[in-house]
Amino acid sequence: MADTPPPVADLEAEFPGLPLGEAVFRFLSGALRSGRYRPGDRLREEEVARLLKVSRTPVREAFGRLLAKDLVVPAGARGLIVRSLDVGETLELYAMREILEGAAARLAAQHISAPEIGVLEEISRAFATATGPPEQARLNREFHAAVTRAARNRFLGEALEQLQDAIAVLGATTFSLPGRGSTAAQEHAAVLAAIAARDADRAEAEARRHISEALRCRLTLMRR
């Protein structure tokens, strides 16, 4: 089980203007995605409330939303355990991710602006020089989020956001595999080149290939 995360000084400053229940939910969702909480870790109301310096009421609300998204399972004594996905669920998840990420890249090639291409180029360069799986995972999320924004389709964006929640409970990042960072950098570059060229067919194909390779790496991790 992971160590308790360091305290967050001011939840309201991190998520200004949001109701506390929403802010706690976003914090916990982000903690799952970043690997701060991992499959098998226990979440307790009183510990999260103390960590975030809030009452148990918004924590209980956030826990309910995590349960509804099937990201956690009850563990007794007002606690939850971060769930894990089996091989079958993982295959289903990546099958949908390949379709949706491919669609996002296709639409991005049709709608992206010059400044957005510049943003993707910056993220791609940063990823190529990143050191360590956590930084690579963060930049990978940024790259895909930037492609999704450029797609200009809110419904597609919402669907991919839900998939990201599920990906968060898969455990260790695939960038922990030797060489995955360098191959992913090449895959990002191929997706970016196709989008910048406004080649929708190629952009979709490269994005789907990227996710297919990510699945291959994920299955390798799961066999260990």
Please give the domain count: 2
Tell me the radius of gyration: 18 Å
In one word, what is the shape? globular
Helical content class: 55-70%
Quickly count the helices.
10
CATH topology (fold) name of the largest domain: Four Helix Bundle (Hemerythrin (Met), subunit A)
Give the SSE string: HHEHHEEHHHHHH
Instruction: List the uncertain runs.
Output: 1-9
The name of the CATH architecture of the largest domain is: Up-down Bundle
Query: In order across it, which strands form the biggest sheet?
Result: 1-3-2
**CATH top-level class of the largest domain:** Mainly Alpha
Q: What portion of residues belong to β-strands?
A: 5-15%
Biggest sheet overview: 3 strands, antiparallel
What is the averaged pLDDT score? 91
CATH superfamily of the largest domain: GntR ligand-binding domain-like
Distance between the termini: 18 Å
Total beta-strand segments: 3
Helix and strand content put the structural class at mainly alpha
